[in-house]
Write a structure and sequence with these properties.
Strand order of the largest sheet: 4-3-5-11-6-12
CATH topology of the largest domain: D-Maltodextrin-Binding Protein, domain 2
CATH architecture of the largest domain: 3-Layer(aba) Sandwich
Low-confidence stretches: 294-300
Helix content: 25-40%
Structural class: alpha/beta
Number of domains: 3
Number of helices: 11
Shape: elongated
Order of helices and strands: HHHEEHEHHEEEEHEHEHEHEHE
Mean pLDDT: 89
Radius of gyration: 27 Å
Strand content: 15-25%
């Protein structure tokens, strides 16, 4: 079909009528008469040579052919609308969707967002946070920043930031601690990665106690509980620099364990757009100034 001859008005009328299953309500949405919508849909049906609706006494019902056409037309209009939105301020802005584990989002990325916006005003950065469980394909993400060992199936992973875990707690709690063995008598807050405290006690040369109490799916939430005096969190001090500087949290012991790092990931099947390349370059430039950062020239991990 010649693109110049696409019946766009008829397709728009069909899409609205399919959502409302009513010509009158579709006409109100489109600011035209009910007869105009009915005429446009009939015109489309003639052009396709098939019925798209069953006309009922109290509305409409989609035929099998209509059901097949609805998602195609709706997706096409959604894509056009999303592209037009990128011109909302009179210049093109390329959308970039990034999923970020919550602790990294609040502890590292959020304080730097203004700097990124100033450096790249043509990128429309859209951030969603998660608890490290993310579906790049299902959520249509360009990138995901997550914590772990870099081994995610079908994913290209580039190391960003080392983040050793160490005990963090409120100052009042820290005042009761003289040696690592004193932690055994305190509530030890747990993450969903169940082996972390065992690894830390092994590094301290101590047997790990039996752990009880709530399990947190976010280091940020766990650290907030620790700051409120509810126990001791095992979390990355690098993500809580502001809280440590303000003495809302204290790191009572220097012993830390390497249980993973932060990675920039994307689907191996996803080619990098210009916005993705610029975001990655900005991240690497920012990371270069952070102590303990992996060099951007280190080999990326493919799984």
């Amino acid at each position: 079909m010649d693109r110049a001859q696409l019946p766009l008005n008829a397709l728009r009328a069909f899409e609205a009528a399919a959502r409302h299953l009513n010509f009158t309500r579709a006409a109100i949405e489109l600011c035209v008469s009910q007869g105009a919508v009915s005429h446009q849909v009939a015109q489309l049906e003639r052009r396709l040579g098939t019925r798209l609706f069953h006309r009922l006494p109290r509305g409409l019902a989609l035929t099998d052919e209509g059901h097949a056409l609805v998602p195609v037309v709706a997706d096409a209009f959604d894509r056009v609308a999303a592209t037009l939105d990128q011109y909302a301020d009179g210049r093109f802005r390329e959308a970039l969707k990034v999923g970020v584990v919550g602790t990294f989002a609040t502890g590292w990325l959020l304080p730097r967002l203004d700097a990124f916006a100033r450096a790249h005003p043509s990128i429309d950065l859209r951030i969603s946070t998660n608890n490290n469980r993310v579906d790049l394909a299902g959520e249509a993400l360009d990138y995901a920043i997550r914590f772990g060992d870099g081994a995610w199936h079908g994913t290209h992973a580039e190391p960003l930031l080392a983040a050793p875990l160490a005990p963090l707690c409120a100052p009042a709690t820290a005042a009761r601690l003289e040696t690592p063995a004193d932690l055994i008598h305190e509530p030890l807050l747990r993450s969903y990665r169940s082996d972390e405290w065992a690894l830390w006690f092994a590094a301290a040369g101590l047997p790990a106690p039996v752990l009880r109490g709530p399990v947190f799916d976010s280091s940020a939430l766990m650290a907030s509980a620790a700051a409120a005096g509810h126990g001791i969190a095992l979390a990355p001090p690098a993500m809580f620099a502001r809280e440590l500087a303000a003495e809302l949290l204290v790191q009572p012991f220097a012993i830390a364990i390497d249980a993973g790092r932060y990675w920039l990931t994307r689907l191996m099947s996803r080619p990098e757009s210009d916005a993705m390349l610029r975001f990655r370059a900005w991240l690497n430039a920012e990371m270069a100034a952070v102590p303990g950062t992996t060099s951007s020239h280190e080999s990326a991990r493919h799984t």
